Amino acid sequence: MERRILWINPIGTNLFDIPMKENLNKVKDKETILDVVSFEKGPSHLEYQVYEALVGTDILRTIKNAEKQGYDAAVIGCFYDPFLSEAREISNIVVTAPAESSMAIAISLGHKFTIIVGRKKWIPQMEENLLRYGLKERLASFKSIDLGVLDFQNKKEETEKRLIEAGREAIEEDGAEVLILGCTAEFGFYRKMQESLNVPVIDATIAPLKYAEFLVDLKRLAGIKHSRIGKYESPPYTEIKAWGLDRMFNIPFE
Amino acid sequence: MERRILWINPIGTNLFDIPMKENLNKVKDKETILDVVSFEKGPSHLEYQVYEALVGTDILRTIKNAEKQGYDAAVIGCFYDPFLSEAREISNIVVTAPAESSMAIAISLGHKFTIIVGRKKWIPQMEENLLRYGLKERLASFKSIDLGVLDFQNKKEETEKRLIEAGREAIEEDGAEVLILGCTAEFGFYRKMQESLNVPVIDATIAPLKYAEFLVDLKRLAGIKHSRIGKYESPPYTEIKAWGLDRMFNIPFE
Amino acid sequence: MERRILWINPIGTNLFDIPMKENLNKVKDKETILDVVSFEKGPSHLEYQVYEALVGTDILRTIKNAEKQGYDAAVIGCFYDPFLSEAREISNIVVTAPAESSMAIAISLGHKFTIIVGRKKWIPQMEENLLRYGLKERLASFKSIDLGVLDFQNKKEETEKRLIEAGREAIEEDGAEVLILGCTAEFGFYRKMQESLNVPVIDATIAPLKYAEFLVDLKRLAGIKHSRIGKYESPPYTEIKAWGLDRMFNIPFE
Amino acid sequence: MERRILWINPIGTNLFDIPMKENLNKVKDKETILDVVSFEKGPSHLEYQVYEALVGTDILRTIKNAEKQGYDAAVIGCFYDPFLSEAREISNIVVTAPAESSMAIAISLGHKFTIIVGRKKWIPQMEENLLRYGLKERLASFKSIDLGVLDFQNKKEETEKRLIEAGREAIEEDGAEVLILGCTAEFGFYRKMQESLNVPVIDATIAPLKYAEFLVDLKRLAGIKHSRIGKYESPPYTEIKAWGLDRMFNIPFE
Amino acid sequence: MERRILWINPIGTNLFDIPMKENLNKVKDKETILDVVSFEKGPSHLEYQVYEALVGTDILRTIKNAEKQGYDAAVIGCFYDPFLSEAREISNIVVTAPAESSMAIAISLGHKFTIIVGRKKWIPQMEENLLRYGLKERLASFKSIDLGVLDFQNKKEETEKRLIEAGREAIEEDGAEVLILGCTAEFGFYRKMQESLNVPVIDATIAPLKYAEFLVDLKRLAGIKHSRIGKYESPPYTEIKAWGLDRMFNIPFE
Amino acid sequence: MERRILWINPIGTNLFDIPMKENLNKVKDKETILDVVSFEKGPSHLEYQVYEALVGTDILRTIKNAEKQGYDAAVIGCFYDPFLSEAREISNIVVTAPAESSMAIAISLGHKFTIIVGRKKWIPQMEENLLRYGLKERLASFKSIDLGVLDFQNKKEETEKRLIEAGREAIEEDGAEVLILGCTAEFGFYRKMQESLNVPVIDATIAPLKYAEFLVDLKRLAGIKHSRIGKYESPPYTEIKAWGLDRMFNIPFE
Fold first, then answer.
1. Which terminus of chain E, N or C, has less C-beta within 10 A?
2. Do F134 and E137 touch (CB under 8 A)?
């Protein structure tokens, strides 16, 4: 039962595409076919809310195209989960994103989790997401390691050192029992952290990929899939067509 | 002390521009110069999250242009408060939006408020906003009158009847002491509702306009203005320029 | 990559073992080997907290034995998730249970969920579990259909009718976008409900089985498994042995 | 459109009346006529709840008298917001107070705020007020500078130093993006703090004055004023008169 | 071990003094000596917040006098718990009040409780008290029977009928397992309600009397008494004396 | 009015029975007859959730036997309050436990309390209990003194020193106004702590004993006793008998 999954790096650089795919290939199910794409234009990271806003249309277009091309699932590869609700509103395929997927795993691994971010700047929006997801009560703390998205893979040694240090503090001072890496670009560090700290460390790329596989299976085997009423109710295509939104934004809404 | 305020109808139709301006002129301060704009393309309402996503770049561009042109404030005229955080992230002028502004008023007018929306579809996102704003505890209820954004001004009699009916139920059954109209296109009805129901009714166009005036005055007189650290910290312009985001998206970020 | 999973019906009757296994075989992964067991003594359902208490030792013994026998995961088949924390405290294999697993799925399928229970009696404990899991904010409502655990499969037609009715009310009146069946004995009804109501319906047997497969894979592929500090920290075996608890309670703690 | 506003220092000393008025005159609107009064008897500060209780009748009498004299608004000048609900219950004019007004501003200036108080003693009551106002989620922290109400203006240099130090800690350690001065007697320090710390600092005298102007305008222009049902419903004057409460307490209730 | 307890009806009528004492004598411990007082002036009920404000000084004076006269405890006999914090701030004896005492009992009698009030008007303040006490989560609902404080004993039959009806609805529709009578003037009805409804009904006069006995015993036997730091920290008597507050308000603060 | 109360040390050692009884005799009411029992088998402390599970049946059997023998109340002597709900479900006598009883006292003694535990391991379960009891908002903090249940009475000097140190930190850093000793084996230290720290310290053995006396009196004098619907609804004895649960588990359920 083959599953086709599209990982979207929602940024204007393909810098992470190959190494991320290599990493994900190690943990994907053997029946999963994984593709990784990024955008032709746009910011190279999404540390600011305005950067997210700039890639909104590209994310939605890419997901609708994936649906047309027969993908079973798409992953929006940024821990802010940008445009996740919007994507589900207009698509019938499975769409996942790192923060929500990490929660779906973390809630069964321990009492409280700490999210380790790059910069303090990221915390307000992530805290708002936790509130929206209803999971604020399970948060032990946020910890920042004072590095940017583009630093993690460039300064691997320093990143690893700071991640382990932040994780240790979270465990000893904040009561964390589970650690979550709050950025997809923090991929590749979780194994070493698990060995050093002896607690589960949820990698923000593994979580949404595996959760996507899980949801695809639930949909195929039991027909359980995201609700199309309320939050994820679609706009009527007649309206979209009447307004010409598909051509205007080059998105195959139908 | 003249204040220049730009009201943005973040939709691809100028349908509401003139009547809304007429209505707002009745309540604006005499030293406020108000302009109203809408977009050249895009959906005619923002009932769906995906419609909001499509106008994100236009909202940000319009606000940065307003800043360049010397406006003191901009209002994002949709009760979902779309891209309000993003706008504050990149601009130094005052930016307001209906939901947040209505809260800033409602908290002193009574114990609990009910938000009257057009369709049930709108409730999940608005409830998430209340959670993010931290004001869920003050909510009495949401009430839906089963009309769309484009119906309110077209079917005034029916709209008025349903608004009053929904308000009465909110007061009698849900403990509402204050009513908030959860859509800018519900403008013009609040006076009649206040007379019929004898409780304060917050119009979603008046609230952000007057709150914008209020914040402009606070800024001018006391230098109190939105924080530029954390949630509203700006991206460095060097980065924006290096990536060519200003030309790419035609937004004067500097 | 074969997975061995033990489903435990934590009751003193094998009434559900065969039909439940047949149902689960339809949705299990092809590499999953599923066994279903129940206890030799004890109550025939766990509607009362005291009934749960009576089977605590049996649940823990069965799970430790499963671990010895090489199972990869065990499922505690009751929506109260009885002794789930205790089981994780003493075992290294994956342990899941219906309520927590259903949450892990529901959070990505819609804004709010309703849990449909058999009797009002069940609600307080389930509500406490939601509080402990931190997910109370996502609850739309509980609905009771006034039938007991032993009625569902005996009165299928009536059960189906009431489940659909309760689901419809939850959607129309409480804002539910997702339905969760709050008892494992409500198995077999979700498909018909999905067809009638057109929203996702999470079956309380499918959720913990599939979530167990998911967690087993995460553990194997990425070494991500439940934390052994804090809430799930094990008692020292030296202490258990010194006190003779293993022989006393016939549980292979080591 | 002249507005008459009465600032009430609810204490038995006129110590703050003149300097506070001078300070407020710098930020009031040009059409605002501001008067400042204090009481003839009573405690010189309200650091203790019992001191507040002692001035309750004086606050209510002063506000009802202000209403008779044609004031448009009254401000209760203490950050505990003492008898704010009671005042609204019996008066038709606008009544504001520092804590609530500061919230109405702070919610749009940043993600979280810290309230800087004089003594730890003040925190429990202020925290209870935040809970009642429904805004606890937006609080970053309370910080105490270990000075009393009567110290701030007497030891300006020390006060300023400690305020800046407390503000810096709130920003760096607690995630505050906005600072609120939790005592009206902390007036005059906000400008220097804003310059030093580069975040908005809400002065507890400016906030309720400007918010009063704002609400007076809303009332005049749009008829939007505080609700008179539920929390702010008035007692019937027939009852008051029958019991002789007006003469008994020398308050013009009618 | 004799205990002297003063019940204060904080109103300007002695209407309830004798019948309430007779009722309380049936449930007081045999070593408790109970006195009941009311005030010489003031409103005849406290349904409005402003009425509470008017009796604040009298409540505090009465409690300080009781302390001087050797009482072990005082009860503030109104379900709003007016000036309870203030009273504890200045006195060393035990002070209780109905709402808090009812909570101290209700939390062990069932999952959720409903508070039955006379008028809807009372709900906002009582809900705020629940928030302050931290017990909102345990509330099933408020129910109003549309009768005033002075009606309950005058229209006993009607009151009893409505209380039972409201209780039944609370149980059947709101999930209440415990009922609390939200007014001291609702005394005398609980027994009949318990018989009719078969759930515990907490009488708002019994609760604070028995809780006062309980706290007096804890203080005598174990020295456990209310904290004098933070919320209940006393103002320094030197300050009170310097300002002449004791003579000014005729309260023996020392 | 004699009260017979059974204190249950729910562990397989009588180590604490005599000293605890001696301590409790100092604070019990003179009409209380106190017996203390422990179990013949089982763990010597309940620091782990699995240890609790092992004594569940023994707790329930002991309480039902106590009921048969005419006890008026039983106390489950462990701060996790193990099987408190289950015990109330099947018994008509008063059942109390330390955590819940401590809350019933603490809520009137100060604004916030700190619970001082032996090990960090205990915190997650106790925090979950606070959530279930609805009192999380009143918690200042948990403090751990890094000692086990069996250390407290063996290393009295060290225990006392650490308890006082932890209490001091809680007061100075966390805003605690009341301290609660989070383990029954921490008995005997509260007096010295109260003298040193000058705040109320709730002993986890005194609280449930005195609360049990209080509830027994409420039941006798006013018929107010725990609800038998919803959370504490009993299973029907016909079912228990049909399944043979009484003989199977040697518990006199009838």
1. C
2. yes
Q: What is the DSSP letter of A230?
A: G
Q: What is the CATH number of the domain that holds F36?
A: 3.40.50.12500
D78 within 8 A of D205, measured Cβ to Cβ: no
CB C137 within 8 A of CB D137: no
Q: State whether A104 and A92 are in the same domain.
A: no
- Residue A202, beta-bridge partner list: A180
Q: Do B85 and A125 touch (CB under 8 A)?
A: yes
Chains near F, with 3+ CB pairs < 8 A? A, C, D, E
- Residue D161 tokens read as 């130093």
- E99: closest chain F residue by CA: F108
Q: Which two tokens stand for residue E120?
A: 């809807």
Closest chain B residue to A249, measured at CA: B54
pLDDT one digit per residue (tens) for chain D, 254 residues = 799 999 999 999 999 999 999 999 999 999 999 999 999 999 999 999 999 999 999 999 999 999 999 999 999 999 999 999 999 999 999 999 999 999 999 999 999 999 999 999 999 999 999 999 999 999 999 999 999 999 999 999 999 999 999 999 999 999 999 999 999 999 999 999 999 999 999 999 999 999 999 999 999 999 999 999 999 999 999 999 999 999 999 999 98
Q: Which of E124, E128, E230 is nearest residue D120 as measured by Cβ atoms?
A: E230
pLDDT tens by residue, E76-131: 999 999 999 999 999 999 999 999 999 999 999 999 999 999 999 999 999 999 99
The answer to the question of residue C62 being in a domain is yes
Residues A106 and A194 in one domain: yes
Check whether residue D13 and residue D61 sit in a common domain.
yes
Tokens of F60: 């329930």
- Closest CA–CA distance from residue D143 to any residue of chain B (Å): 19
CA distance D192 to E228: 36
Q: Is residue A254 part of a domain?
A: no
Domain ranges, residue B15: 3-97+206-249
Answer yes or no: is E161 within a domain.
yes
What distance in Å separates residue C59's CA from the closest CA in chain F? 10
If asked whether residues C162 and C228 sit together in one domain, one would say: no
Which one, of B105, B118, B100, B111, lies nearest residue B163 by Cα?
A: B118
Contact criterion met (CB < 8 Å) for F131 and A112: no
Helices H / strands E in chain E, number of each: 10, 8
| Closest residue by Cα to residue E35 from E90, E93, E77, E98 | E77
Instruction: Tell me the nearest-neighbour CA distance from C239 into chain A, angstroms.
Output: 22
Q: Which two tokens stand for residue F21?
A: 């009884």
- CA angle, residues F7, F10, F15, in degrees to nearest 5: 85
In a domain, D254, yes or no: no
Do B155 and B118 lie in a common domain?
yes
* Residues from chain C contacting residue E137 (CB–CB below 8 Å): 131
Asked if B135 contacts D135 with a C-beta cutoff of 8 angstroms, the reply is yes
Q: Report CB contact under 8 Å: B223, D191.
A: yes
Examine the domain organization and report whether D129 and D181 are in the same domain. yes
Q: Answer yes or no: are the C-beta atoms of E94 and E210 closer than 8 Å.
A: no
Answering whether pTM is above 0.90, one says yes
- Indicate the residue among B178, B202, B226 that finishes a domain: B202
Disruptive mutation site among D107, D108, D111, D136 for chain A (greatest number of A CBs within 10 Å): D111
Shortest Cα distance, chain E CAs vs residue F171, angstroms:
9
Count of domains forming chain B? 2
Pick from C195, C224, C228 the residue to mutate for testing the A interface (most A CBs within 10 Å): C224
**Those residues with Cβ within 8 angstroms of residue C62's Cβ, 6 or more apart along the chain or in another chain:** C6, C8, C37, C39, C74
Please tell me which chains touch B, using 3 or more CB pairs under 8 Å as the contact test. A, C, D, E
Q: Decide the pairing of beta strands C73-76 and C94-96.
A: parallel
ipTM of the complex in this document: 0.97
Query: Closest Cα partner for D28 from D6, D50, D60?
Result: D6
